[in-house]
Design goal:
By secondary structure, the protein is mostly helical. The chain has 7 helices and 3 strands. It is globular, with a radius of gyration of 16 Å.
Length: about 160
């Protein structure tokens, strides 16, 4: 909602000026606080944001980075719904999608990451410690490169 509240013309002009090759959207953790979140409404907002991006950069590749796990069963399931909504929107929009919660190990993984020694997940069961973010970034990098390599091997244009 925040990004859609920004002045659209200014936002589009600033993005166009940067001439991006790839735009990565990463959000959903704050939205997971709303355990009554409507997946359809969330997916519609994702689509609106990608439409704005494409106004600025019609040929840009996009990656939607779904939220990581969050402690508490009601929040874990909300994160599942958000990831499902974002994945569906990504498919419809032609964007790549990476599920942060699944990368961590699925629902309940935040508790495991927070219980490791040293811990990767924070005591709030929402955020990661720097080591956790580093691990997550390494997993994303590995998967992006694997996807790129798979596209090159098949002779197709590489997409994240």
């Amino acid at each position: 909602r925040s990004a859609l509240a920004w002045d659209e013309a200014t936002w589009v002009a600033e993005l166009a000026r940067r001439q991006p090759d790839l735009v990565v959207l990463a959000f959903g953790t704050n939205e997971s606080s709303d355990v009554k979140l409507k997946a359809e409404a969330h997916a519609a907002r994702v689509k609106q944001l990608v439409e704005r991006i494409r106004k600025a950069a019609p040929q840009v590749d996009c990656l939607i980075f779904g939220p990581i796990d969050r402690g508490g069963e009601q929040y874990e399931q909300t994160v599942v719904r958000i990831n499902e909504a974002q994945a569906a929107a990504a498919r419809e929009l032609g964007c790549a999608f990476w599920n942060g919660q699944q990368a961590m190990g699925g629902p309940g993984s935040m508790q495991r990451w927070a219980s490791m020694v040293p811990p990767l997940g924070g005591g709030d069961r929402v955020h990661l410690y720097p080591r956790g973010y580093q691990k997550l970034g390494e997993m994303l990098g590995r998967d992006l490169l694997a996807g790129y390599d798979a596209g090159v091997v098949r002779g197709e244009p590489a997409k994240p």
